[in-house]
């Protein structure tokens, strides 16, 4: 048989062999793609599960059942069944890979919220704010918006992640990311260890509380250990309806386990007054916080649940190191002295329905640089923002009708203030010692100005008076000038110079008036 015939004879065999190899390779590729897609689905499931777990923690829920998930005879995850929340399935491990170079997506608690991380660093959105895992962040002005869950996908062997619900994607690389490293359980808890190193503890029904602070545990066991076993179970905690005076002046530091006191609807008056508490997590269904409940404590942050309908006066008065706080959206009034003396409080978000800011509500909040006033606000109480030295500007909504005495007293850096038409009285000492104010316009609706209103405004060079009828000036304290320690070159601009110069009080400033253009 010649060479030509041999080739013709072997060609179909070679073609058959090549097609078989190709099919085998294609099947292998398809199998690997299917495995990667399955792995991607599991990791997306884990990310969604983490958000659900944060909700479970916020609601102080319990695990009532744990079911292993197996594949090929190995446990690859667990289905967790909760008492009140929907069940979740969460996977762990890296499918046999050591994950040494894998990107690690996780969550980490900071203050009162959980935020997403990547390789130990905070995930940031387009505004360079951290991305909240679940719920709404109202505890500070830097981190905002609702919680977002990252999404993963794989294309051409490359892993991608989205932090904006799939609108845009960022490349992670060819190595599969890790989310959950390990899951284990004991009699009381299920422990979820994330690839980022964070460990999350989820309590089981009927288990006992693992207190972070031994003093807190001692006091709780002393008061509410019904079965006298030296422990406080979650069921025993849930049965508590009042804290009474248990923690007043107590040397406790941490009480995040208070979240499990689910039967508690009110924090009693003076409940933690002058105690050493630095961290606390309030029950999710709490309805009220009493008078001076956290007075003069070293509390560093507070997340007041949205369920809270009322807060007593001076609830957080003199919490000198309090940096983060919120006001529930259902409240329409900021109580008297609510955050007075909170030297480190940097910002606060007032609910959209707020109509009144109580007297001294933010007195001596030295570092609070900004507060957005809602459009329905009617009243700003006496000394409400006195000594808020970081303020540089205050523009009031048109709804405001009452601005209390000494409202901005000693706001030394407050340079620009706008009071709306409709306000009739500039009360006593409203702008006393506002050193940065160079110009101020008095609305045409003002009918009366109190004593000391502009005292010690050492840089006030221009006062614009819009009322056509000169406002009455209170002089019943024996003082006869509004402008003590103001600049000698102060100019008072008025609608009609003659009208003001003929007024019994305002005539004393003849020579300072100029007509409005």
Quick rundown:
This protein is an alpha/beta fold and 517 residues long. It contains four helices and 32 strands.
Tell me what the structure shows.
The strands form 11 sheets. Strands 18-20-22-24 form a 4-stranded parallel β-sheet, with no helix packed on it. About 3% of the residues have low confidence. The chain is 15% helix and 23% strand. It is built from 4 helices and 32 strands.
Per-chain topology:
Elements (H helix, E strand, L loop, with lengths): L2 H56 L4 E9 L2 E9 L5 E4 L13 E6 L2 E6 L2 E2 L28 E5 L2 E5 L7 E4 L6 E6 L3 E6 L4 E5 L10 H11 L9 H5 L15 E2 L10 E2 L11 E2 L7 E2 L20 E2 L21 E2 L12 E3 L6 E2 L12 E3 L6 E2 L12 E3 L6 E2 L12 E3 L6 E2 L12 E4 L5 E2 L12 E4 L6 E2 L17 E4 L2 H5 L11 E3 L2
